[in-house]
Design brief:
By secondary structure, the chain is an alpha/beta fold. The chain is 44% helix and 14% strand. The protein has helices spanning 3-12, 21-30, 46-55, 66-78, 93-101, 119-126, 144-147, 155-160, 176-185, 213-226, 238-251, 265-276, 310-317, 337-344, 351-359, 370-380, 385-410, 416-423, 441-445, 461-477; strands spanning 34-37, 58-62, 84-86, 108-111, 129-135, 163-164, 167-171, 192-195, 203-209, 231-234, 256-259, 282-285, 300-303, 327-333, 436-437. The chain is globular and about 60 Å long. One of its GO terms (biological process) is DNA repair.
Length: 478
């Protein structure tokens, strides 16, 4: 048995790697850059955890969301790893300074890309030999970077300042053009590539046209009451998520809640925990309830709008059936949905707005308008006016092309799954009755049964506060 198989057995109890893992682990051990495009649930985190445990030293992991960092910290702690921390702005200033001063005492350090823009963080990391630099959800470089996280566009330059043995980029979904963006953006040097198919054969790909928005709600209620198990409904606005939550509560006996970025962090955390603990059957969410949602038994994912890209669509439907059991995703399309999505695909600042804000950036700080916030984020990340214009001009072309690809898929007369796989250059599979199309009663009858739903009792305020404070104290004790 090889050394890495011995280590796999010792640390995880597994005798064999899952497809795609071993070559990424070996690359990290050899000090070679790597790119892993592995489907959700395939064990991407093991690809950087195992080589770090074998080699020692410190690995930094770049995550887009605080929830993802917290989740990975807890999982590592559950494995018995004590030298792990999330270096975030949530830490008290004194705690942050202490952690930063003792950073070389941690084996795994999680942070957002914006954290690497801080001079004190870069200065501390430059003094340390780093085992690995890992960029999780690496597709954000291509999509979130231009759209609202410009720090992603500087990530390769920032990592180049550090003493890193190798860089590993990981994501679940990335077509060839996004893979190229990742390799270029992170300055990956002849990376070892492990590219898996995006196909989720256990997830039925449903697509249904409805005649009106009222019919859409009627069909939604039918599906929610006919399909057992946890369910996620996606919306393109916070207001719609809240409105449909009220409708479901009024029309059914299902336990339901909405989740979006407008809620405070503690409320989102409590809703997330109730869903994960089977106290909620339905979540009405915007894309804020996205990456890192690792509930294995979600049986239905519904889109009530046209997603902005096939990448976003594939990521979302991949949240169904992570346990490998038969599950379904369905997109309900009504009048005006295409036009609304097409308008959203053009939603980036124009040259005039960029010029206006660059003339007086301080006057526009702390405004709620997302386009203004995006330009301010570019300014904070050190981009000049011409660079921003070029970035957003290119991104607008990409978003238009992405929407056209999504529209083409949804208007295909053939197999939806084959069209999706072709977009991602994945091997095609044969069409079957359990593949895609209308979510019929026959398809529904074949979906996996659900676990009993626990009573969604309202927690007393003392319990809620205890949960919050325990969570905060656990973070500080890492």
């Amino acid at each position: 048995m090889s050394a890495i198989l011995d280590a796999l057995k010792q640390h995880y109890g597994f005798d064999h790697f899952r497809p795609g893992q071993e070559s990424l682990v070996q690359a990290a051990i050899d000090g070679q850059d790597a790119l892993g495009i592995l489907p959700t649930g395939s064990g991407k985190t093991l690809c950087y955890q195992l080589p770090t445990l074998m080699l020692g030293g410190t690995t930094i992991v770049i995550e887009p969301l605080l929830a993802l960092m917290e989740d990975q910290v807890k999982r590592l702690q559950a494995m018995g790893e004590k030298h792990v921390i999330a270096l975030t702005s949530q830490l008290q200033p004194s705690d942050f300074r202490f952690v930063l001063a003792h950073l070389n005492g941690y084996r795994f350090v999680f942070m957002a890309p914006e954290m690497l823009a801080r001079q004190d963080v870069i200065a501390q990391l430059q003094q340390m030999p780093l085992t690995l630099a890992v960029v999780d959800e690496a597709h954000c470089i291509s999509q979130w970077g231009p759209d609202f996280r410009p720090a992603y566009l500087k990530l390769g330059d920032q990592l180049a300042k550090l003493n890193v043995r190798a860089t590993m980029a990981l994501t679940a979904t990335a077509p060839k053009v996004v893979q190229d963006d990742i390799k270029r953006g992170l300055h990956l040097n002849q990376p070892q590539e492990s590219i898996a198919s995006v196909n989720r054969p256990n997830v039925f790909m449903g697509l249904e046209q409805v005649d009106s928005q009222a019919d859409k709600m009627t069909r939604l209620i039918e599906l929610l009451t006919q399909i057992a198990g946890p369910k996620i409904i996606y919306f393109d606005s916070k207001q719609k998520a809240e409105q449909v939550t009220e409708l479901i509560a009024a029309k059914t006996s299902l336990s339901v809640a909405y989740y979006h970025a407008g809620l405070d962090a503690h409320t989102r955390d409590l809703i997330y925990r109730r869903f994960m603990q089977d106290q909620l059957e339905v979540i009405c969410a915007t894309s804020a309830f996205g990456m890192g949602i690792d509930k294995p038994d979600v049986r239905l994912v519904v889109h009530l709008y046209v997603p902005e890209s096939l990448e976003a669509y594939s990521q979302a439907i991949g949240r169904a059936g992570r346990d490998g059991e038969a599950s379904a995703a369905v997109l309900l399309i009504g009048p005006g949905d295409y036009q609304r999505a097409a308008q959203f695909s053009q939603g980036l600042p124009d040259a005039k707005l960029i010029e206006t804000i660059y003339r007086h950036p301080a006057a526009y700080q702390n405004m709620e308008d997302p386009q203004i916030q995006l330009i301010e984020a570019y300014i904070a990340s050190g981009f000049n006016q011409d660079q921003v214009k070029a970035q957003l001009r290119d991104r607008l072309s990409e978003k238009t092309a992405s929407f056209q690809a999504m529209a083409t898929l949804l208007n295909t007369q053939g197999c939806l799954r084959q069209a999706l796989l072709a977009h991602f250059d994945s091997p095609l599979v044969a069409h079957t009755a359990q593949c895609c199309g209308e979510l019929t009663q026959d398809v529904i009858s074949r979906l996996a049964p659900a676990k009993p739903v626990l009573a969604a009792a309202v927690l007393p305020w003392q319990t809620i506060f205890t949960t919050i404070f325990k969570h905060s104290l656990a973070e500080k004790s890492n």
